Amino acid sequence: MNDPRPVPGPQRRLPSLARCGTLLSLLAAGLLALIGDVRATTVAAAADLKFALGEIAANYQQETGRKVVLSFGSSGNFARQIPQGAPFEIFLSADEEYIFRLARQQLLRDEGRLYAVGRIALLAPHGSPLAVDGELQGLAAALGDGRLQRLAIANPQHAPYGRAARAALEHAGLWQALQGRLVLGENVAQAAQFALSGSVQGGIVAWSLVKAPELAGLGVAALIPESWHPPLRQRMALTRRAGEDASRFYDYLQQPAARAVFERYGFSLPAR
User: Fold this and answer.
1) What's the average model confidence in pLDDT over 41-59?
2) What confidence score (pLDDT) does residue 272 get?
């Protein structure tokens, strides 16, 4: 009959409770260090900042070793997401009214800082039948003779640059005539993508995107007079969830090196 008892063999010594505690402490410390290493500042930014802020954040990370995660989109959408708990620590809006609104809801530390004033431009890809000029005379002519079938702008319902484009078209007396021909981007960066895609004849987009090396050689652009639309006063603020790293990056955005990048991308800068 088989004996069910285990066969005696070499015994493994279990570590003492004190030793287990030390190992757990070391593991916990290592885990916290790892979390600290991957901690990143989370930023919600207007789509017109895609290239300018991307360059600033890359410079900051290279200089400090601190990580920044950028999310680009329409300012109106971010202004709706932040009250719903979106985990952003800094909000750079293309319309300062969104900052003031969130500040009144006590979702921001304060009313923030004006960091730039944006401009809009008419953009057409190479080969487009649209003659490009800042006062939109070529646009009016192409619309009148049928060469202009589609024009891209950002959605005016939630994108400040879309509202500026609408105001400029209204100033030129073209808004009503363009109904049914407008292609609306979710944000101004998508509108620029549409404008250069070849499926539309052009678009009204952010001058800061046109100035970016990635887009500059893909089409022809002209600044639209700033008096044709309400000023694109762009404001940024820290949210209530902002940590120390976010405060550091927020301060960096106000320093000469960052301001120089904004200026190079065609933004007007507020006095310091």
Assistant:
1) 98
2) 67
Phi, psi of 115, rounded to the nearest 5 degrees: -110, -20
Q: Is the pLDDT of residue 137 over 80?
A: yes
Residue 129 near residue 147 (C-beta atoms within 8 A): yes
CB-CB neighbours of 136 under 10 Å? 23
Say whether pLDDT at 237 is over 90. Answer: yes
Return the beta strands (E) in the chain as ranges.
Answer: 40-46, 67-73, 90-93, 113-118, 120-125, 151-154, 182-185, 202-206, 219-223, 232-238
Share in percent of the chain as helix, strand, coil (round to 5): 45, 20, 35
* pLDDT, tens digit, 9 for 90 and up, residues 209-226: 999 999 988 999 999 999
Answer positive or negative: Cα dihedral of 160, 123, 190, 52: negative
DSSP 155-210: -TTT-HHHHHHHHHHHHTT-TGGGTTTEEEESSHHHHHHHHHSSSSSEEEEEHHHH
Dist. CA 112–CA 44, nearest whole Å: 14
pTM for the structure as a whole: 0.84
Task: Report, as an integer, the average pLDDT of 101-127.
Answer: 97
Structure tokens at 130: 């649209």
With contact defined as beta carbons under 8 Å apart, do 91 and 78 qualify? yes
How large is the average pLDDT for residues 58-78?
Answer: 97
Residue type for position 239? T
